[in-house]
Specification:
alpha/beta; Rossmann fold; 41% helix
Length: 625
C-alpha cells in the first residue's frame, strides 16, 4: 500500500470500496464494516510516506484525533468508530457522511440566505458547546472541517489537533492550525481555551454572512493582521447593509483580539448570534413570506400552470405542436391567493416594462418585480422563485451576471433572459454562466411570452426547490463523451484531457453520430458545428427532443447571433466554446457536463429543465414592449 498506489482490498477488518479524498501522506476511503454491516469512512496514514523526523509527532496527533473525537457522540460531530495501526498504516474508522465541506460549497460561490446561515452557525456552536463540556477543544474550526450533509445538517470533523484539556499545541516552533481562522493567542503559541474555538467559529460566521474572509492575503500577512491589536475587522454590515446592529455586535465580539473580551463559551455566542439573525430577518422582512407549498398543492399548481399555458395558446396550438398533451380549458373557480401562487421574479430597469409584465402575469403568479439587481438577489435568497425573467442591460450588473448568481443560490429556478439586442458575448455567457432556459428578444409577442413563462413555471413547480446538487465523481467512468469532429483534432485533445475520467467515442459527421448514439449509451455530445454544418444543427435539435438527457457542448466561431439563440431555445445547448478553443476551458465544461449528467441520471425529473422550445407558430404580433 502507498499514498498514491492502487486501491487496497481491506484496511484492518474494513472492506475498501473507493476513494473519497487523497493527500500527500494518506487517503480517505469509503469502506464497509462487515461485522456491524454499515458503511464507514477510513482515514489512513501511510507510515512510509511520512518524513522520518516528523513521523512520530504526526502519528501522535493522528491517534489524539481518534481519542478526542472518539469520546464525543453528538449529531453535529462526525463519530469515530475505531482506531487501528499496523506496520504500514495507521487508520481511523469513522461515520461516512454524504455531502461536501463548507469550504467546497463556498468555492462553488455558494451563498446562503440568512436563515441558512443561522442554522449552520447554530449547529456548529451547539457541537462546540458539547465538545467543550466534555473537555475537548477542536482548535482548527474552519469551513474545510465542516461537512454539509445532503439534508442540510452539519458535521464537524477532523479533530486532528484537538486536545483533551488545555495544552499548548506547537510543533517545530510553529502553531498548529489555519491562520485565517486561528485565534490570535494560538498564533502566538498561547493556551487553547473554548474562547479560541469561539473566535474560529466567528470567522466562519463572518464568511457565511459576507462572502469574504475576515482577513485575507498571504499566510504571513494574515498572521500579522490577526495578532495586531490595532487591526480591526470591518463590521459585516459594511459589506451587507441588511445586517442588523445586533448581528454585527455578536460577530465582532466573537472576533475580539483579547480572549477576555470575547464570548467565554459557545453557548453565549450561539444565543447572541441567533438574536442577531432574528433582528436582521425582522429588518428585511417587509414582505410577508408565502406559505410553504405542500406536495399536493404543488401537484395541483403544476396542473393549473399547464391549464393556464394551454388557455393562453388559444386553441392549444403549442400543445398540438408538441404532440404530448391535449389542449385544455381553464376551469373557473375561486382565485388562488397571492401567497399560494407560483412565484415569478421580474427584473428590468424600465418601469414601463415592469408594469407591463406585472399586468401580464399577476392573475397567474405571485409576481415579484424590481428594477434593482441587488434587491432581486435578496428575493431569490429569501423565496424560492419558480421562474426568473431578467433584462440584460441593467445599471448594477448585466442580466447574465444576475442570472448566474441566481443559479448558484437557487439552481432549479428557471431563468429567462430578456434583451433588445443581439450581443454574442451575452448570448454565450447566458448559457455558460447563467444556464438560461430561454432567450427572449424585445419586442415580444404576448402570447408567445406567456407560453414560454408558463412552461418555465410548470417545470419549476415539477422539479421543486433544490439548494444542494450532489454528485459522485466515481460514476463518471461509466459515462461516454461523443466527439463529432471530422478533423480528429478535437478528438485527440479530448482524449488527452479526459484520460481515465470517462469513455470517449468518435463520429466524423452528424449521420455517424446518430448511428453511434443508437448503438451505444452516450452522455455528452461535443460538436464543432461549423464542420458539422446544417446537419449538425439538426442533430442537436433532434437529440434534445428525442434524448433530452444527453447534454451538448458546441464549439464554434460563428457570428450568427440568430443561430446561437436558435440553438439555445430549440436545442438547449449546455455550453458554448468559442474558437480558438482554450483546452482548459474544454476540460472544465466537459467535467461540468459529466457532473450534471450524473445528477440528471439520479434525479430524472430534472431533465425537464432542459426541455426545448416548441416550433414557433405563426401568430399576429401583440402589444409587446
Amino acid at each position: 500500500m502507498s499514498a498514491t498506489g492502487p486501491l487496497p482490498a481491506t484496511i484492518g477488518k474494513f472492506e475498501v470500496h473507493g476513494i473519497l479524498g487523497r493527500g500527500g501522506m494518506g487517503t480517505v476511503y469509503s469502506a464497509f464494516d462487515p461485522t456491524i454491516q454499515r458503511p464507514v469512512a477510513i482515514k489512513a496514514l501511510i507510515k512510509r510516506a511520512l518524513e522520518p523526523d516528523q513521523a512520530m509527532g504526526i502519528l501522535e496527533r493522528f491517534k489524539r484525533e481518534a481519542q478526542a473525537a472518539g469520546r464525543l457522540m453528538h449529531p453535529s460531530i462526525v463519530q469515530v468508530y475505531d482506531y487501528g495501526e499496523s506496520q504500514e498504516v495507521a487508520f481511523i474508522a469513522m461515520e461516512l457522511v454524504s455531502g461536501k465541506t463548507l469550504h467546497q460549497r463556498l468555492l462553488e460561490r455558494r451563498r446562503y440566505d440568512l436563515k441558512q446561515v443561522g442554522s449552520i452557525v447554530e449547529q456548529l456552536l451547539t457541537a462546540l458547546e458539547y465538545a467543550h463540556q466534555n473537555g475537548v477543544i477542536h482548535q482548527d474550526i474552519k469551513p474545510a472541517n465542516i461537512l454539509l450533509t445532503n439534508d442540510g445538517r452539519i458535521k464537524v470533523t477532523d479533530f486532528g489537533i484537538a486536545h483533551v484539556e488545555s495544552t499548548r499545541m506547537v510543533v517545530n516552533n510553529e502553531p498548529l492550525g489555519t491562520p485565517h481562522f486561528m485565534a490570535p493567542e494560538l498564533i502566538n503559541g498561547g493556551t487553547a481555551t473554548p474562547s479560541s474555538d469561539v473566535y474560529s467559529a466567528g470567522t466562519v460566521a463572518y464568511e457565511l454572512l459576507t462572502g469574504q474572509r475576515a482577513f485575507s492575503g498571504t499566510t504571513a500577512f494574515v498572521m500579522r493582521q490577526v495578532v495586531d491589536p490595532d487591526v480591526r475587522v470591518a463590521p459585516p454590515s459594511v459589506i451587507d447593509p441588511r445586517i442588523a446592529a445586533e448581528l454585527d455586535a455578536a460577530v465582532l465580539k466573537a472576533l475580539a483580539k483579547q480572549p477576555a473580551e470575547r464570548f467565554q463559551n459557545a453557548a453565549e455566542f450561539r444565543l447572541a448570534f441567533q438574536r442577531g439573525i432574528e433582528a436582521t430577518l425582522r429588518a428585511v422582512g417587509d414582505i410577508a413570506e408565502p406559505a410553504p407549498l405542500s406536495e399536493r398543492a404543488t401537484r395541483n399548481l403544476s396542473v393549473a400552470a399547464r391549464l393556464l399555458r394551454d388557455t393562453t395558446n388559444g386553441a392549444g396550438t403549442a400543445s398540438a405542436a408538441r404532440g404530448d398533451r391535449p389542449a385544455a380549458t381553464r376551469t373557473p373557480g375561486k382565485p388562488l391567493s397571492s401567497a399560494h401562487k407560483p412565484r415569478l421574479l421580474v427584473v428590468d430597469d424600465e418601469e414601463r416594462i415592469l408594469n407591463s409584465l406585472k399586468a401580464l402575469f399577476r392573475d397567474d403568479f405571485h409576481v415579484f418585480a424590481t428594477s434593482n439587481c441587488n434587491h432581486a438577489l435578496r428575493f431569490v435568497e429569501k423565496f424560492h422563485m419558480h421562474a426568473i425573467i431578467s433584462d440584460q442591460r441593467m445599471p448594477e450588473m448585466l442580466g447574465v451576471e444576475l442570472l448566474r448568481r441566481a443559479k448558484i443560490t437557487s439552481p432549479t429556478s428557471m431563468r429567462l433572459l430578456l434583451t433588445g439586442y443581439s450581443d454574442l458575448n451575452a448570448i454565450v455567457d447566458s448559457i455558460n454562466e447563467g444556464e438560461i432556459f430561454r432567450f427572449i428578444n424585445k419586442p415580444w409577442n404576448n402570447r408567445d411570452l406567456k407560453q414560454i413563462v408558463h412552461e418555465a413555471v410548470e417545470i419549476g413547480l415539477t422539479v421543486g426547490e433544490r439548494r444542494v446538487m450532489r454528485v459522485n465523481p466515481e460514476l463518471r467512468q461509466e459515462m461516454a463523451v461523443l466527439v463529432v469532429d471530422p478533423s480528429y483534432e478535437l478528438l485527440r485533445s479530448t482524449k488527452e484531457m479526459l484520460v481515465g475520467v470517462c469513455q470517449i467515442r468518435h463520429a466524423i459527421d452528424a449521420e455517424s453520430a446518430m448511428d453511434q448514439i443508437d448503438q451505444h449509451p452516450v452522455t455528452i455530445v461535443l460538436i464543432d458545428v461549423e464542420h458539422a454544418g446544417a446537419e449538425g444543427v439538426a442533430l442537436l435539435k433532434t437529440l434534445k427532443h428525442e434524448k433530452p438527457g444527453i447534454l451538448s457542448i458546441v464549439v464554434t466561431n460563428a457570428s450568427d447571433s440568430e443561430l446561437m439563440i436558435e440553438l439555445i431555445n430549440q436545442a438547449q445547448i449546455f455550453r458554448f466554446l468559442n474558437k480558438p478553443v482554450n483546452q482548459q476551458l474544454v476540460r472544465s465544461h466537459l467535467l461540468a457536463a459529466l457532473e450534471r449528467a450524473q445528477l440528471l441520471r439520479e434525479s430524472p425529473e430534472l431533465v425537464q429543465m432542459y426541455r426545448p422550445a416548441a416550433p414557433a407558430a405563426a401568430a399576429p404580433p401583440t402589444a409587446g414592449s
